[in-house]
From TrEMBL:
<feature type="domain" description="Myb-like">
    <location>
        <begin position="124"/>
        <end position="172"/>
    </location>
</feature>
<dbReference type="GO" id="GO:0005730">
    <property type="term" value="C:nucleolus"/>
</dbReference>
<dbReference type="InterPro" id="IPR009057">
    <property type="entry name" value="Homeodomain-like_sf"/>
</dbReference>
<dbReference type="InterPro" id="IPR053078">
    <property type="entry name" value="TTF1-like"/>
</dbReference>
<dbReference type="InterPro" id="IPR001005">
    <property type="entry name" value="SANT/Myb"/>
</dbReference>
<dbReference type="GO" id="GO:0003682">
    <property type="term" value="F:chromatin binding"/>
</dbReference>
<feature type="domain" description="Myb-like">
    <location>
        <begin position="173"/>
        <end position="256"/>
    </location>
</feature>
<dbReference type="GO" id="GO:0006363">
    <property type="term" value="P:termination of RNA polymerase I transcription"/>
</dbReference>
<protein>
    <submittedName>
        <fullName>TTF1 factor</fullName>
    </submittedName>
</protein>
<dbReference type="Pfam" id="PF13921">
    <property type="entry name" value="Myb_DNA-bind_6"/>
</dbReference>
Length: 350
């Protein structure tokens, strides 16, 4: 099926198909389209959002049956094959021979990718590992000295994800300033972001989009949609020099939000309470099982036309401030707690 036809056929099952990349559409055409049509014949609609207990049970059943069929001796080996390099070739061959994609998603009317991610979350023994200990930080430094930035290798040695070890090393590798941002640091950050945006626009399909940026050497005048896109924060961190990537990201979001809302104080006093209440209600309504299932752009627009990353950071503050032992809870459990326990208190305070 060609790309346009696949997109049109998938639109019947996935309302937000226009926001999905071409590469994802190609994968869904292969893995999901026939499944979706079969579910339609059975009168079953394609589902998104939070996984039900019945679906979680079906995923466990599918994984266990596939293990029994192939003789692979653990779900971790099946779903995290890179952790077992000596068995990798055998496992990949068995997955191909026994149609892993079809078997793992059997009976569940959802996109295969979401089912696969859910299965990995259910069966990952390294899930919810929490903060790095002092010993782990020292270990990370030693591994980086030995293996450089081979984060895949280091992640296997530390039983942490690639992204986790890369970002944690970025955070601890040098002396960092934790005080208020100086004017010089802020200017460095603005300059670093502008350099990155200029490069992104230069390599964009429409080089003409650069024209507005070239009009000024002191401020950033580009389409707001461009500002919503993810930025290479470790690169920006290097340019700033005195702050680690997370600080740079938070500072940029505060600058951006201040510009986009013209200084409106959305998170203070009564407005702050209303915004927290709206955010909790909207997140609860999504019935999302995982943060990756939330349409943050839509949510951000509903709350106050803010950058998605800013709203995500506000959700982070909510869970840290109000949800006890939040690191041990799933995303949906955190949302349920905020809705059932925190929301009534906030509404009463308002």
């Amino acid at each position: 099926v060609d790309l346009d036809t696949a997109r049109q056929e998938l639109e019947e099952f996935i309302p937000h198909v226009k926001n999905i990349s071409d590469s994802s559409i190609k994968k869904m055409a292969g893995r999901d389209l026939m499944r979706f049509k079969e579910f339609k014949k059975q009168g079953m609609a394609v589902r998104f959002g939070r996984f039900t207990q019945k679906e979680n049970k079906q995923i466990r059943k599918n994984v266990e049956e596939f293990l029994a069929l192939t003789g692979i001796d653990s779900a971790e080996k099946l779903l995290f094959t890179s952790r077992y390099p000596e068995d990798k070739d055998t496992i990949h061959r068995l997955k191909t021979e026994h149609h892993f994609c079809e078997k793992i998603s059997e009976g569940i009317p959802r996109p295969w990718r979401l089912i696969y991610y859910r299965a990995r979350k259910i069966f990952d023994p390294n899930n919810y590992k929490g903060r790095y200990t002092k010993e782990e930080k020292e270990q990370l430094k030693k591994y980086q000295a030995l293996h450089g930035n081979d984060w895949k290798k280091i992640s296997e040695l530390m039983s942490r994800s690639n992204l986790s070890v890369a970002m944690k090393f970025s955070e601890i590798k040098s002396a960092i300033n934790y005080g208020p941002w100086t004017e010089e640091e802020t200017q460095k950050l603005m300059s670093a972001v502008k350099d990155v945006m200029r490069r992104k626009l230069t390599t964009a399909e429409n080089p003409g989009s650069l024209s507005s940026l070239e009009q000024s050497d002191t401020d950033l005048w580009i389409d707001r949609e461009q500002l919503y896109q993810p930025l290479p924060w470790t690169e920006i961190e290097t340019k700033v020099g005195s702050r680690y990537w997370r600080q740079c990201k938070q500072k940029w979001n505060s600058i951006l939000t201040s510009k986009l809302t013209r200084g409106q104080k959305l998170y203070r006093g009564t407005n702050g309470l209303r915004t927290k209440i709206t955010l909790i209600k909207r997140l609860y309504e999504t019935k999302a099982e995982d943060a990756s299932e939330v349409n943050w752009d839509e949510l951000s627009n509903a709350i106050g036309d803010l950058p998605r990353a800013y709203v995500q950071s506000k959700f982070y503050r909510l869970k840290v401030s109000f949800v006890p032992l939040w690191k041990r809870k799933t995303f949906s459990e955190i949302i349920d707690y905020l809705y059932e326990k925190t929301l009534p208190d906030l509404e009463e305070k308002l």
